[in-house]
Design a protein that fits this description.
94 residues, alpha+beta, Alpha-Beta Plaits, two-stranded antiparallel ribbon, 11% strand, binds iron/sulfur cluster, 7Fe_ferredoxin, metal-binding, metal ion binding
Length: 94
């Protein structure tokens, strides 16, 4: 399983989740210039260890376990995974 950042992140992009994540699974890093190029943050499902630390850290309640994503953001799991599948995304540097 993985956790998922829904589109509720858009407009906030608070970095508390990134600070809370022990697995560096949340991208892009706020320390990288690419951070400004993305409207929300994303969780890499291959890096997430399902610890749940990011969920309560989010001030806008944008993060859910993948099996609890609200219907209004039903595509969020795929949106997160697709971010890391994109050839333009170099997660090693994000
Ligand atoms: S559940 Fe844990 S490992 Fe996964 S993104 Fe959240 S803080 Fe990181």
């Amino acid at each position: 399983m993985t956790y998922v950042i829904t589109q509720a992140c858009i407009g906030s992009k608070d970095t508390a989740c990134w600070d809370a994540c022990p697995a560096d699974a949340i991208h892009p890093s706020p320390n990288k210039s690419e951070f400004a190029d993305h409207e929300q943050m994303y969780i890499d499902p291959t890096e997430c260890i399902d610890c749940g630390a990011c969920e309560p850290a989010c001030p806008v309640e944008a993060i859910y376990p993948e099996d609890e994503v609200p219907d209004e953001w039903a595509d969020a799991t795929a949106v997160n995974a697709d971010f890391f599948a994109s050839p333009a995304c170099n997660t090693a540097s994000n």
